[in-house]
Design a protein that fits this description.
five-stranded antiparallel sheet, single chain, about 625 residues, 2 domains, 20 helices, seven-stranded mixed sheet, elongated, Penicillin-binding protein 2a (Domain 2), alpha+beta, Beta-lactamase
Length: about 625
C-alpha cells in the first residue's frame, strides 16, 4: 500500500500494469512464433527474397578428327531473357522488343524454332504472353545476332536482360554432318556423335550463390563459379578423307539421279573408321533455319541395312575354303540354270559359262556357282561363317541407331534359302558391317570390331576412354589369302584372244593394283511382294592397294535412275576415286604410271549388246519371286 495515493490511482496503475504485462506477454509469444515456431518458414522466405542461385552451364567439349582438327566446338553468343516481375509496361515493352527482334540478320526460322525464340523471330502477342507471366525468368530470343543484342542492351528496358550462352558450331559445315550430329539449344546431343557421347561432352553444370541488393540487382558474393567442362572426343575420322568420300559420292549420285548413297572408308590394320559419307546429308549449323530440313538425312552406314547381293559371295566362298569343302581350283558345272526347288524359279546367270572353278566364280560373279558352293557347304556352316564375319549383330561402333542387319537362324532355312543367301539375297547387312568383313579378308582372317572414337580426353588431359574393338579369327589365314587372290583377279582386263576380264575390268585406280567385288541387287518391293525389275542397289567393295591393303572402301548407290545400274559401272567409279585420292593423301606409295606407247589410244569400252544395252554382270539376277 502506498500512503497518500488515492485508491482510484492505484486501480488505474494496476490496470495499466496488467495491460503492459499482457502486451509484453503477447509480444513475447509473437516473437516466439516468428523466431521459433515459424522460424524455418520465414527463413526460407527471406532467403528466397534476398538469395539467388545461378546455374552456370558447363562448356561442352569439342569433337575433333584424328589429327585434332575441329569438327564441333562451342562459342558464346547473345540471348535475350526477361524477369516479368520487373517489367513495368508489358504492352509497350513487347512492342519495342518485337521491332528489335523481328530480324537478327538471318532470313527466317522454322515455326518450331521461332516459337522458342530462336533466331530472334517472335511476334508481339507471344512476347506479351511471356512478359505477363508469373515467372522470374523466361527466354525471349536465343542465339541472336550481335547487332540485335546491342540494340536490346542499349534500350535498357526494365526487366529485359542480355546474357551470354554457348552455342554449338560445326566448322566443316556439311562434311560429316550425319556422323557428327548436332546439339540442341541447351547443348544436349540430338544425333550422331553428339548424342552417342553426350554424357562425356556435356560436362557438369554448377550453382553459384548470390545476393540481391535493395534494388533487386544480383551480387555475386563469392565471385563467378566455374562449371566442369566437357571432355574432348577425338574421332578416328579424317576430315580430309571424309571430304573426298562425300565429294565422290555426291557427284555420282547427281550423275545417276540416284535416291541415296553411302561410302565407308576403313583402315584395314586397325578397323578405325576414316570416313562415313551419306547422301543426302545436312549442315548441322543450319538446323532450325527455314530451308535447312534434312529430308531424312541420316548416317546410312549404320542406320540402314541392305540386301547387298553379290558382294556377299565372298564370305560364302571364304567359309567354304576354310572348311575344306572346296579349293580355289575346284570346278563346278554351271550351265544355263540351277534348279533347287522345282516350284521356285531357277537361279540363272546372265552370261553363259559351262564350267567354272571357284576362283572363276568370284572373278565372273556366277550366281549359280555361288549357290552350288553354298549348298555343298550347308546351311549350318554357312550361317556360322556369316556370324564369324560379324553379320547379324551390331559392330559396337560408337554411333546411335546402329542396326544389326537380319539373318535368320539356319534351322529355319529351306534349301532355296541357303542357295539365295549364298549369293547375297535373304540377308541384310549394314555398309559398316560389310567394310569390317572385307577388312577381315585383308587381315589374313582376323576380324576386328570397327570403332570411330579414338579417345575421350578430360580437361586435365587424362584419357578416360579408348576405342578398342574386340578381335577374333573368322577364317584361317590360308583361306583369307586365297580369297584375296581371287578378289585381285576381279580387276583382270580382257586379253585379246585370251580370257575375258573380271567384273571390275573397267575400273582403273591409276598407280595402284586393287582387289574387290561388285554387286548389283534387285530391291525387294513390298507392294509387289517380290523383287522389283526397275529398282536396284549398286555396290562395290574394294581393298587397296592389293599387295598390302591399307584401306577398304565400300560404295553403295541406291536406286540409280538410269539404264546403267550395275555395281561395277555405278559404284565402281566412286571406289576408284576415293581409293586413289585417299591413298595419295595418306602417302601410300604406288606403282609409277606407265605412259602409253607412241600412237596408242586408250582401250575402247566393251561392245554393247542388243539395243545398246550394256551386258549386265552375273551378279544382277534376282532370286525366286516367292523369296
Amino acid at each position: 500500500m502506498t500512503p497518500g495515493v488515492p485508491g482510484a490511482a492505484r486501480a488505474r496503475a494496476y490496470v495499466i500494469g496488467i495491460v503492459v504485462t499482457l502486451g509484453l506477454v503477447g509480444v513475447a509469444k509473437r516473437a516466439w512464433s516468428l523466431q521459433v515456431g515459424d522460424g524455418e518458414r520465414y527463413r526460407e522466405l527471406a532467403e528466397h527474397q534476398h538469395e539467388l542461385h545461378l546455374e552456370i552451364p558447363a562448356p561442352r567439349g569439342d569433337v575433333v578428327d584424328v589429327h585434332g582438327r575441329p569438327l564441333a566446338v562451342s562459342a558464346d553468343v547473345d540471348s535475350i531473357w526477361a524477369n516479368p516481375h520487373d517489367v513495368r509496361d508489358v504492352a509497350g515493352t513487347a512492342e519495342k522488343l518485337a521491332a528489335m527482334l523481328g530480324h537478327d540478320g538471318r532470313a527466317s526460322c522454322s515455326a518450331g524454332s521461332a516459337a522458342e525464340g530462336r533466331c530472334g523471330l517472335i511476334d508481339e502477342q507471344t512476347l506479351e504472353v511471356k512478359l505477363a507471366g508469373d515467372h522470374k525468368f523466361v527466354w525471349l530470343a536465343r542465339h541472336v545476332a550481335p547487332d540485335v543484342a546491342r540494340a536490346v542492351a542499349t534500350a535498357k528496358l526494365p526487366g529485359i536482360e542480355v546474357a551470354k550462352e554457348p552455342r554449338r558450331w560445326y566448322p566443316g559445315k556439311s562434311v560429316g554432318g550425319p556422323v557428327i550430329g548436332r546439339a540442341d539449344l541447351d547443348g544436349k546431343g540430338l544425333d550422331g556423335i553428339e548424342l552417342a557421347m553426350n554424357a562425356q561432352l556435356a560436362g557438369k553444370r554448377t550453382d553459384v550463390a548470390a545476393l540481391r541488393d535493395a534494388r533487386g540487382h544480383t551480387m555475386l558474393s563469392d565471385g563467378v563459379g566455374h562449371a566442369l567442362p566437357g571432355a574432348t572426343v577425338q574421332l578416328s575420322l579424317d576430315r580430309s578423307v571424309q571430304a573426298i568420300a562425300e565429294a565422290a559420292l555426291a557427284e555420282q549420285i547427281a550423275a545417276k539421279k540416284a535416291k541415296s548413297g553411302v561410302v565407308v572408308v576403313l583402315d584395314v590394320a586397325t578397323a578405325r573408321v576414316l570416313a562415313l559419307a551419306s547422301s543426302p546429308t545436312y549442315d548441322p549449323n543450319n538446323e532450325g533455319v527455314a530451308g535447312s530440313e534434312t529430308h531424312g538425312a541420316r548416317d546410312l552406314a549404320v542406320t540402314d541395312a541392305f540386301e547387298a547381293g553379290s558382294v556377299m559371295k565372298v564370305f560364302n566362298i571364304a567359309t567354304a575354303l576354310d572348311d575344306g569343302v572346296v579349293a580355289p581350283g575346284t570346278g563346278f558345272e554351271i550351265g544355263n540354270a540351277y534348279t533347287v526347288n522345282p516350284r521356285v524359279k531357277a537361279i540363272r546367270d546372265v552370261e553363259f559359262f559351262p564350267y567354272l572353278t571357284v576362283s572363276e566364280i568370284i572373278k565372273y560373279s556366277s550366281n549359280i556357282g555361288a549357290a552350288k558352293i553354298g549348298m555343298r557347304l550347308g546351311a549350318d556352316k554357312l550361317y556360322a561363317g556369316l556370324l564369324q564375319f560379324g553379320f547379324g549383330k551390331r559392330t559396337g561402333v560408337e554411333l546411335p541407331g546402329e542396326r544389326t542387319g537380319r539373318i535368320r537362324k539356319s534351322a529355319n532355312w529351306r534349301d532355296i534359302d541357303t542357295a539365295h543367301i549364298a549369293f547375297g539375297y535373304g540377308i541384310t547387312v549394314t555398309p559398316l558391317q560389310l567394310a569390317a568383313a572385307f577388312a577381315t579378308i585383308a587381315n589374313h582372317g582376323i576380324y576386328r570390331e570397327p570403332r570411330i572414337v579414338d579417345a575421350v580426353i578430360d580437361g586435365d588431359g587424362n584419357t578416360i576412354y579408348k576405342g578398342e574393338g574386340a578381335t577374333h579369327r573368322a577364317v584361317s589365314a590360308k583361306a583369307a589369302d586365297e580369297m584375296m587372290k581371287m578378289l585381285i583377279s576381279v580387276f583382270d582386263k580382257t586379253v585379246p584372244g585370251g580370257p575375258i576380264g573380271g567384273t571390275a575390268k573397267t575400273i582403273d585406280v591409276p598407280g595402284f593394283r586393287c582387289a574387290g567385288k561388285s554387286g548389283t541387287a534387285h530391291k525387294y518391293d513390298p507392294a509387289l511382294h517380290g523383287y522389283s525389275e526397275t529398282k536396284y542397289l549398286a555396290s562395290f567393295a574394294g581393298l587397296a592397294p592389293a599387295e598390302n591393303p591399307r584401306i577398304v572402301v565400300i560404295s553403295m548407290i541406291d536406286e540409280p535412275d538410269s539404264r546403267d545400274y550395275y555395281g561395277a559401272s555405278v559404284s565402281g567409279p566412286v571406289f576408284a576415286r576415293v581409293a586413289s585420292e585417299t591413298l595419295r593423301y595418306l602417302g601410300v606409295p604406288g606403282d609409277p604410271l606407265a605412259p602409253l606407247p607412241a600412237g596408242a589410244k586408250p582401250a575402247a569400252p566393251p561392245a554393247a549388246v542388243g539395243n545398246a544395252t550394256p551386258t549386265p554382270p552375273n551378279d544382277v539376277a534376282p532370286p525366286a519371286d516367292d523369296h
